[in-house]
Amino acid sequence: MNNRNLWVDYGKAIGIVLVVYGHVVRGLLAAGIIEDHIFLHKLVDSVIYSFHMPLFFFLSGLFFWHSMSNRGANGVFLSKIDTVFYPFVLWSILQGCIEALLSNYTNGDVSLAKVFSLLWAPRAQFWFLYALFLIFTLSVLLYRRSAMFLPLLVAGAVIYIFQNRGPNFFVFNFIAQNFVFFAFGVWFNSIRGHIESRAGLVAALSGVAFVVLEYVFHGVLGLRYEDRGALSLVVAMTAILFVVSACMVLARKPLGWVLTLGALSMPIYLMHILAGSGIRVILSKFFGIDSVAVHILAGCVIGLVLPVIAAKILEAMGIKWLYEAPAWMSLDKRRQRRLAVAPRSL
C-alpha cells in the first residue's frame, strides 16, 4: 500500500463508522427504542450529517484527475458504470427485496414497486452511489477539456449556496448539494503537500474552528444539517479539513484494523443496513432487549464486522461480482481488451 495514501483509508474508516452509527441510531428512533424527544441523539445526528457524506464525496474527488490523466474521460466513465452504478442497481434490488419480504419485522413499509423505482427514486443508503455516479458523469464532461480546478470549485460553491433558488428536482438536488465537495477533493491535490507537511498544526486549528462552527450552527442559530447555505458549506469544509489533517497525523503510525475498515468501506456501506437492522430485530423481537446502549453498541459492531467478514470470505473465494461488474459484462474491461488488440491489427 502506498504510504502517502494511508490517510485516505483512515478518512474512509472514520466516515464509514459515522455512517453506520448514524443509521443504527436512526433505526432505533424509528423503532421507538430511542424516545424521539431525546435531544442529544438528534443533535449528534445533525452534527454527523453536516459533514460525513461530504467527506466521502471529497475523498472520491481526490483521485479523479489522476484517473482522467491515465485512463481518459471514456475510461473513467465506463469504470464508474462498473464500480458505482452496477453495485447501486444490484444492491438496491437485493436489499430492497429482503426489506420487502421482512417488512413485518422492520420499521419500513418497503414495497417491490418502491424497490424497482430505483432509477428515478433511489432509496435507503444507495442515494449516495446514485449521486456519486451523476457527479462522476458531470465531472468527466466538465474536466475533460481543461484542468479548471479552482473555477469549478467556486462554481460548485455558488450553486450549493443558492441551491434553494434552483429547480426542485432530485438530479439537480444531488448535484447542487454534493458536487462542491467532490470539486474540493479534485482541487485539494494542489495544496495537498502543504497540508501534509504541517498536518498537526492544521488539525489543531481546524479542530477548534470545527467545534466553534458546530456550536454556532446548532447551538446559537438552532440550525440543522438540512439548512444548507453559506454557513453549512463552511462547516462541512472545515470538518473535512479537520478530519483529513487529523488522519494524516494518525496514519503516521497506522493501525491495521483502521486501514481494513477504510479499504472495505464500500462493502460495509452496501451491507451495513442489513446487518445493523438484523441485529436490532433479533435483540428486540426475539430477546426482548430494549437497552439503548446495547442496541447502539451491537448495531455498530455488527454493522461493521459482518460486512468485513463477508467481504474477506468473498475475496478468498474470488467472488467480485457483488461489488463490481463481472468481466463478461464490464464495459471498461471490454474497452481495455479492444485497446490491447488494436495495435496488433495495424
UniProtKB/TrEMBL annotation:
Membrane-spanning intervals of the chain: 12-34, 46-65, 85-105, 125-142, 147-163, 169-188, 200-218, 230-251, 258-282, 294-314
InterPro entries for the chain: Acyl_transf_3_dom
Molecular-function annotations in GO: O-acetyltransferase activity
Topology within the bilayer: Multi-pass membrane protein
Keywords recorded for this protein, A-Z: Cell membrane, Membrane, Transmembrane, Transmembrane helix
Compartments where found: Cell membrane
Domain named Acyltransferase: residues: 5-311
GO cellular component, one term: plasma membrane
Keyword field contains Cell membrane: yes
PANTHER family linked: O-ACETYLTRANSFERASE WECH (PTHR40074)
Family that this chain belongs to: Belongs to the acyltransferase 3 family.
Protein's recorded name: Fucose 4-O-acetylase
